[in-house]
Write a structure and sequence with these properties.
This protein has 160 residues and is α+β, with helices and mostly antiparallel strands. It has one domain (16-152). It is built from 5 helices and 8 strands, in the order ααβαββββαββαβ. It has a 4-stranded mixed β-sheet. The chain has a 4-stranded antiparallel β-sheet with strand order 3-2-7-6. β4 (99-103) and β5 (107-112) form a beta hairpin. The longest helix is centred in the N-terminal third of the chain and has 17 residues, at 16-32.
Length: 160
């Protein structure tokens, strides 16, 4: 039986789940090219119990980052705008993630998740609330200093 994709009716992109999965595949292929192989977990059961993958990498697509020169770091989410309760997500989700990878098909920032949490607690940047996401911004100048590694992709198709 095929598992249904999650539906986020109030999200900016109605197919945000599929877009995220495709970006995750792109990142996995690029990381494999440098010898890092991820074992992703797709079912809700295992993602909630363990995390996005067995290695503890959280991968986030941030399409506009190269246009805005900043990363949008997620801290909470909800599936629908009319739900009252926010759920910790992104850097605030308690799972096996210790690395936080964020970017788009041009650039990927690799951070220590605990470092981003400490930065958020110390700086206390303004939180921007969309109908289904709470986030804060980090300019590329700061991200370049905080990141453990930055990967740039010249082949934006992501498939070789």
């Amino acid at each position: 039986m095929r598992q249904l994709e999650p539906v986020y009716p109030d999200a900016k992109h109605p197919n945000s789940y599929q877009r995220g999965i495709e970006f995750q595949d792109f990142v996995c292929a690029r990381l494999a090219g440098v010898g890092i192989v991820l074992q992703n977990l797709q079912s809700k059961r295992y993602q909630y119990a363990i995390g996005e993958n067995l290695q503890g990498f959280e991968i986030k697509l941030d399409d506009p980052c190269t246009r805005t020169n900043r990363l949008s770091i997620e801290i909470a989410e909800k599936t629908q705008a009319d739900h009252a309760q926010w759920t910790p997500s992104g850097i605030m989700r308690n799972d096996n993630a210790w690395l936080y990878l964020q970017g788009n098909y041009e650039v990927l920032y690799i951070f220590s998740k605990s470092l981003l949490r400490r930065y958020y607690a110390k700086i206390q940047p303004p939180v921007h609330e969309l109908p289904t996401i709470q986030k804060f911004y980090i300019g590329f100048d700061v991200a370049d200093r905080l990141a453990a590694k930055v990967m740039y992709f010249s082949d934006v198709t992501g498939v070789r």
